[in-house]
Amino acid sequence: MTPHLPLDADGVAVKAADRKHVFHSWSAQDLIDPLAVAGAEGSYFWDYDGNRYLDFSSQLVNTNIGHQHPKVVAAVQEQAGRLCTLAPGFAVDVRSEAARLIAERTPGDLDKVFFTNGGAEAVENAVRMARLHTGRPKVLSAYRSYHGATAAAINLTGDPRRWPSDTGAAGVVHFWGPFLYRSPFHAATGTEECERALRHLEDTVVFEGPASIAAIILETVPGTAGIMVPPAGYLAGVRELCDRYGIVFILDEVMSGFGRTGKWFAAEHWGVTPDLITFAKGVNSGYVPLGGVAISGAIAETFATRPYPGGLTYSGHPLACAAAVATIATMEEEGVVEHAAHLGRNVIGPALAEIAERHPSVGEVRGLGAFWAVELVRDRRPREPLVPYNAAGADNAPMAEFAVACKASGLWPFVNMNRVHVVPPCTVSEAEAKEGLALLDEALTVADRHTTAAG
Q1: Strand, coil or helix: what is 425?
Q2: Which of 210, 343, 404, 445 lies at a 20 to 30 A Cα distance from 365?
Q3: How many Å apart are CA 453 and CA 378, to the nearest integer?
């Protein structure tokens, strides 16, 4: 694929305008140097100098069907010509069809869909629904999690992005989820980790007071926090715990949903049905902002004659819903979910296992489908991270050097803390996946220089 540039290509002007007027998220504004992107297609994007990058980040793990898929682009264009926008209170064919297609793919009786603009708002509304349904104030969420940057979602988040905004009075209690590689429970096996994590969670519930807890929210497979695949039995154990104490079980599938793990929803891997599922990102590959909450019959019934006190001007926006309808149809027609499962089982997983054997900087690889993490360490035996937790500046130099090496080779990585996540579009071809894995293999030699094995 040869990058095609705009006729008036001027990356310098684009970057200058960005630096003058755009305020970027999660950034010290004077310390960033954003790449000016000229175009994208499939698994690649490119800059104004024609440098092409294989997108192993899927941007923010949301372009599940890749960039500029012609069927979705055409659907958005057609919808724009027919009906660009309409208030949420009306019945609109494309909105109803998007809701139907989503409900058909959710587990159990999660047959109602409340649309939002993205994942954080989905979490906000799921928590609100749970609190109103139960009449209880508290919500439990895990450390090593990310649920969004809005008021409730950022307090639920378990990673350091929460710290500057944490009120300490948001009705949120954090607990440790299972993560065998860095077990907080001193477990030696997945079975031990599962049992001890569930015991810890129940102890937290009991000591916080079950009658005060509205919901437990978990990322089915935590995303930005490390793609820690839960051990067998854990999610079923949480489901049982919620049932026993009358707690709403919320699964956050904003990142793990819509094919990312090789299933429509990651919950399918463990046969678990929550009371609420939050989604966004892959529902339409981020082509137009869209998120939502899939709602069980019991919670929907709470608001059958009682108004739900929440709404958004752009809830179920027609352009976004048209993108979702086309995305879901395309995924079905092209076998994208099955392809993601094949990639994880036969391409990415085996290749990462081989890479781990070659590089002393690789402590563990883990994942499902097109959703993998490579844990980088200074020393495999004590499992010392390559950089300290939440490292910045000079402390983060090894990971920064590794990321630079990836980009210099034409691979755009998803790097967080001491990990690189392998999260290409679910449509990435085997050849493209192997190309990216070879580039990753090469870049890891930079990380190897910072290990104890390097002397």
Answers
A1: coil
A2: 404
A3: 8
Cα–chain center distance at 323: 19
Residue written as token pair 């001890």: 196
Distance CA 391, CA 422 (A): 21
Q: Residues 279-337: pLDDT tens digits?
A: 999 999 999 999 999 999 999 999 999 999 999 999 999 999 999 999 999 999 999 99
Residue 255 · residue 279 · CB < 8 Å: no
**Helix, strand, coil % in the chain, rounded to nearest 5:** 45, 15, 40
For 182, phi and psi rounded to 5 degrees? -125, 55
> 455: helix, coil or strand?
coil
* pTM greater than 0.90 (yes/no): yes
Residue 30 structure tokens: 């004077």
Rounded to whole angstroms, the Cα distance separating 227 from 423 reads: 10
Cα 164 from Cα 4, distance rounded (Å): 42
The burial class, CB within 10 Å (0-12 / 13-18 / 19+), for 307 is exposed
Q: Are 345 and 149 in contact (CB under 8 A)?
A: no
Q: Give the residue among 351, 327, 325 at the shortest CA–CA distance from 425.
A: 327
DSSP string, 162-179: GGGG--S-SSEEEEPPP-
Separation in Å, CA 362 to CA 25, 406, 440:
30, 16, 12
> Which residues are within 8 A (CB) of 210 and not within 5 positions of it... i.e. 6 or more apart?
245, 246, 247
What does each C-alpha distance from 269 to 76, 137, 232, 262, 341 come to in angstroms? 32, 31, 10, 9, 11
